[in-house]
Structure formats: C-alpha cells, structure tokens
Amino acid sequence: MRLILLDSNDELRGNFYPLAFSRPLWELRCGITSLAEKLIARAGATDVAYFVPDYMADSYRAKVKRPVNDLSVLAGDDLLILEPRIKAESFDLAARGPSEVGVDEKGRTLYARIAKDDLPKLPTDDIGKFIAATRAKLPNVRTALPAWQYIWDLILANPEQITSDFAAAGRKGIEGTVEQPNAIRGNKKDVYIAPGVIVHPMVVIDAENGPVYIDQDVEIHPFTRIEGPCYIGKKTVLLGVKCREGNSIGPFCRVGGEVEESIIQGYSNKYHDGFIGHAYVGEWVNLGAFTANSDLKSDYSTVSVMLDGRQAIDTGSFKVGSLIGDHVKTSIGTLFNTGSYIGPMALIMATGKPLPKFIPSFAWFVEGVVTKGFGKGRLYETAKMAMSRRNCQWSKVEQTMWDAVFEMTAPMRNEAIKKGRRAMLNR
Amino acid sequence: MATVEERVKEVTARVLKLDPDEIKPEHSFTADLGAESVQSIELVAMFEEEFGIEMDEDAALSVETVGKAVEFIAQVCKEQGVDVEGIPEQ
Which of A366, A374, A425 sits opposite B61 (nearest CB)? Predict the structure, then answer.
C-alpha cells in the first residue's frame, strides 16, 4: 500500500495561512510531531508520496526524500490518499480493502482508498482529474471524520496532543545531562530528557499537570521553568524562559521571556523578554526584545482573526494570540493585538501601540503604516543572512516559491500600501 | 506647473520637516538633510504619490542627493509616460 498525502490547492488552504503559504498542511505541528508524522504512523505506511500546490513543488522536493507531484506514484500499488486536515487519531479505515472514497458533508474528498485493480479506470495525467475520477467511478461513502478547520485549532489542541503524543512515543527518563541543583516536579515517568540535552543548574521541570519531552541536544539555561505538557525540539536553546503549559517548540529555536500554549515551527528566535501566548510562529522568525502578543481580550469575548485582511472570523475561543508567518522580523517593543495575523516576510517596526490585526505578507510596517519599504529583495537578503547563521542555505527554488507567494498576496498588500499612503499624506 | 525639482524639494521638505528654500540639489538626503532610514521609505512613497509613478525600491533608495533624485524621477516619469515640467538635461 502506498500512502499519498494530498494538499489540494483549494480555498481551505487559506484557513491555515500564514503558515501554509510556504509548506504543505501536513508539515504543520501539533503536539510533539507534525500532522504528516501522525497520519503516516496511523496508516502504518512506509511507501509515502506527496502532492502539493505547484508553486511550492520544487521547494518542497528539495526538502524531502519522498516523491513530490510525481504522477508515476498513481500506479503499481494499492493507494490510500489522505487529505491532511483529517485528524489522525480519528482515522480508522483499514489501509487495504475495496475501493472507497470518503466525502464530507460539503462534498469534499477526505480520503480515497483505491484498490490496485481499479487504477486502470482512472486517468493518471493530472492529480486533479485523478481525484475527480475516483469520485465519479468508485463507491462514495459519506463521512463525518473530524478535521482541522483553521490554524488556531492546532494551537488550541496542542496541550492535549502533546500528552497523547508523549504516550505514543513511549519514552521516559533522563538520558541527557541534568546539572544540580535542579527540580523535577510531578511524576518522573512524565518526563523524558533525550541524549545530548544539557540542563543547567536552577531549572524547574514541572510535570505535575502534563508530560515534558525534551528532545536531543537541547540546552536549557538557568532559571528556566518548563510546565507540562510541553515539547522542546532538537537543538533548541531555552534562555531562562518561563515556558508555561502547552508549548511545542520546534528544532533550532532560541527562546526566552514567557511563552504559553504556543507552537513555534522551528529555526526561530525569541531570545529576549516579552510574552507570546496561544500563538503559532513560523520558521526563521525573529521577535525583538519585548515583543508581546495579547491572547485574551479585555472584555473576555471570543477572539476573531482576519485571514484575508477583510473578513473577521470568530474563532469561538477566548484565547488566540498571533499567527506569525515565516521570516517575520519584529523590532523591540512590538505589540500584537489579540488574534493578529502577520504575513510571511513582513518586517515590523513598533509604534508603541498595539498594531493592526492584519499585516500582509512582505509588508514593511513602518511608522504605523504598511509600506513597500526597501522591497522584497532586501527581505530576501535578510532571509539569506538569517539562514546562513544556522548553516542553512537560501536556494533558488525557495526564492521562486516566495516570488509566487509575493504575487499571490499582492492584492492584500497593495490595498494596505494604498491605505498607508493616505495616512502618510494626512499627517 | 511646478518643475520636477520644485516638486521634489516640496515633498522632501514636507517629509523631513524642512524649509524647501533651504534644500539644494547637492544635498545628501541622509548626511545633509538628516533623513533616517524610515524617512527614506516615506520619501519614496511620497515621491510616487506626487508624480503618480512606481519606482523600483532598490534603485530609488540608492539615490543619495536631491539632484540625483530629480534626475531619477524625471527618468521614471519619462519611462512611465507621465508628463512633467522642467526635466533636467542628461
């Protein structure tokens, strides 16, 4: 059986912006692992292939070893095609069996199990046509499988997901170095410290309310307090951080200040003081000292978010912080309002006040308005520099992908720039 | 209609809060007129608004003096078919 993860370039992708601009949905994190890792484990697959939106295919292909947008994978074996929004723990279809297409109440395909014998009935020259043909020619089943609807669902589910991922990982105990004095509260079975981890003296790991998983080669500086449930990714450095419950911090991050119930994808810095809560932070982000976000409104009403810069979506939650895209840079003292959206590559200069709730991709937010700033070329130079500091390379295919994102997001940005111009003229 | 130079000086004076009569073509935006980097961004935006043109950010921000800005903007106006008065001779 071959598992195919399919990220259709449909309108639902927008529910996972700004993080989904530069990665397929299954690369998003929730708990200890990515959505892909959970789906692959659930399906028990070893043969896996991907279909992603065309504009990111080359970039993604350079990052993974498995086939990407390779139509030849549509032949030769039984197939299980999954929509990455499916919640893995609720997916219990046998990987092998007669052909069956799972369709949700809105008529969207959530999965397709295709027996090898049925493959000759289906066109294999285009993945869109292939999926449409499965719907037309194979038995359809109405399914109410739970699925992730919006990016903040991942944030809100994160604490619980860490707990279940910890149980699934089956690891516990101390394999790294814990320098004394230190304190581990709660049940030690709820703590895993991987090989290569160095925990400096005067660190508190509190697993009383949930497990703590500290992955390989993490370094934890003095006066850090980690509350479970929590996951700290490989080679991350914690700098005296108040790491409150429910955080998943990806690999190669540097984190200080206070962080609560947030997901940091990886390779990002929040080195200094400042609070981030109920946030999802992308890769290669740098949050300047005292950058903070609100995650709770003063009137305790539910938080709304604008994913497209126009329409506010009620999250239904009292707590949602910021959604911060890849390569965002903030100056010292940046203040994000509750439920803020910051598009990838945006550069923010603080104004001393909470910023607008929607800042488009590639925006130079200066003196309280969105501007063209020094243009995307300078943002690419900065990205290149930031990546080289971690021995990572900014590649041509990556730049091509970002060029496509720049074009896709131009209408929202241009509108904001016009608004900014009017504000400048009225000063 | 005011010339390109007069309009450039007017915008520069407004953004940097200076007297337009004190601005000379040889003045550097940063060293002589005290433009900070964020004001440079605002200057480019306001020149685009003033002349109804689109400028390449990198090229525009590499212009150092008022006189060079006049030449650069006049050239962009010409390329983009915008009529202006007093185009300096190249």
Answer: A374
- Give chain A's domains with CATH numbers: 2-149 (3.90.550.30), 152-353 (2.160.10.10)
Q: Which domains does chain B have, with CATH numbers?
A: 4-79 (1.10.1200.10)
Tell me the nearest-neighbour CA distance from A362 into chain B, angstroms: 13
pLDDT in tens, A64-92: 999 999 999 999 999 999 999 999 999 98
Rounded Cα–Cα distance for residues A120 and A6 (Å): 20
Is B45 in contact with A372 (Cβ distance < 8 A)? Answer: yes
ipTM computed for the complex:
0.84
Residues B41, A372: C-beta atoms closer than 8 Å: yes
Contact assessment for residue A193 and residue A176, using Cβ atoms and an 8 Å cutoff: yes
Instruction: Look up the pTM and report it.
Output: 0.94
Contact (CB<8Å) B57/A425: no
From A346's Cα to the closest Cα of chain B, the distance in A is 15
Instruction: Provide the b/e sequence for A216-242 (b: ≥16 CB within 10 Å).
Output: ebbbbbeebbbbbbbbbbbbbbbbbbb
CB contact under 8 A, B42 and A424: yes
